[in-house]
């Protein structure tokens, strides 16, 4: 078989362009009419692999021929149009700037979306939301209310506790208060031994309500005196504070006091105060007779015996003086 345009091996004598210089695959070189070798390799303006490669294709002359070797091409087309002389930075820098611009734009759009969402939905509140009260800047912070001040009249110098009218109750025995270290008489019906708040031992008539009818004992309420009580004046002052405590805790609010007695106890050191308490219950005026005795029992806190009888049990007013007179230190 005759060799056509080649050697006996059948290979073409025309030079091949290496594959790494070809666009896709090795293509033989074509000779132009003037004998110049026209290859498929085209000039490149930028290195391959930057992702922004621009292929410059020489434009043919009007007669269809390519420019002569050594001549500068009159014009190149870039993406379908004439290419102006590029003087800026390489294309990969431009792509970095573009990506940075896209990132900034995306961040701005995201922030705008978040702000828009907050503006649209910030006014929506559930119907069952809990609204906390807001403090007025002009008002002062709330402070705990102090206990109402109990105003008592001035004490008489000395006045003996007098027996009051009524029917005295039978005496059944003695009440012993080990905590307060005193003893006093135990009365029969209608009196009954009851546990009374704020006291160690007590007797009571009727239901627990204000005003009540009771005889109860215990140590002096509150803190122990800063110094030991020694004189009658010391005990009288402590007894006055104890009466103020009974008005605050065992009578209706707004009660008023009138003194009926102020004397030393029959035996030992201490002080006894008698008083009448007036108050209103359901719009009606009422009164109770009461007496309070402090007894020295050899401790920093003296023992206290408190007796009060309301006008609903007026016949028992006669029990007040015997109860107080029977009190003794253990």
UniProtKB/TrEMBL annotation:
Protein name: Uncharacterized protein
Keyword set, alphabetical order: Membrane, Transmembrane, Transmembrane helix
Residue ranges with Low complexity bias: 79-91
Stretch list, region Disordered: 34-94
Source organism per UniProt: Streptosporangium album
Residues annotated as transmembrane: 100-121
Superkingdom: Bacteria
């Amino acid at each position: 078989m005759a060799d056509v345009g080649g050697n006996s091996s059948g290979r073409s004598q025309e030079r091949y362009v290496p594959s790494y210089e070809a666009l896709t695959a090795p293509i033989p070189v074509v000779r132009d009419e003037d004998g110049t070798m026209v290859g498929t390799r085209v000039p490149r303006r930028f290195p391959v692999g930057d992702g922004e490669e621009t292929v410059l294709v020489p434009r043919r002359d009007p007669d269809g021929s390519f420019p002569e070797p050594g001549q500068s091409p009159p014009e190149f087309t870039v993406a379908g149009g004439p290419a102006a002389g590029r003087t800026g930075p390489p294309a990969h820098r431009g792509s970095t700037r573009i990506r940075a611009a896209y990132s900034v734009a995306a961040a701005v759009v995201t922030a705008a979306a978040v702000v828009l969402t907050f503006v649209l939905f910030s006014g929506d509140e559930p119907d069952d939301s809990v609204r906390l009260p807001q403090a007025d800047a002009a008002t002062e912070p709330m402070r705990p209310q102090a206990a109402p001040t109990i105003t008592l009249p001035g004490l008489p110098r000395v006045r003996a506790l007098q027996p009051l009218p009524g029917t005295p109750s039978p005496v059944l025995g003695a009440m012993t208060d080990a905590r307060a270290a005193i003893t006093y008489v135990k009365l029969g019906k209608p009196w009954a031994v009851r546990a009374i708040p704020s006291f160690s031992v007590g007797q009571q008539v009727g239901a627990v309500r204000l005003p009540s009818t009771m005889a109860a004992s215990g140590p002096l309420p509150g803190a122990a005196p800063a110094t030991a009580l020694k004189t009658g004046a010391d005990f009288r002052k402590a007894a006055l504070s104890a009466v103020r405590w009974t008005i605050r805790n065992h009578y209706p609010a707004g009660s008023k006091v009138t003194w009926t007695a102020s004397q030393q106890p029959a035996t030992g050191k201490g002080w006894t105060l008698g008083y009448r308490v007036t108050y209103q219950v359901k719009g009606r005026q009422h009164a109770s007779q009461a007496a309070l005795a402090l007894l020295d029992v050899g401790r920093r806190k003296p023992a206290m015996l408190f007796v009060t009888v309301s006008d609903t049990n007026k016949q028992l007013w006669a029990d007040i003086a015997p109860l107080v007179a029977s009190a003794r230190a253990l």
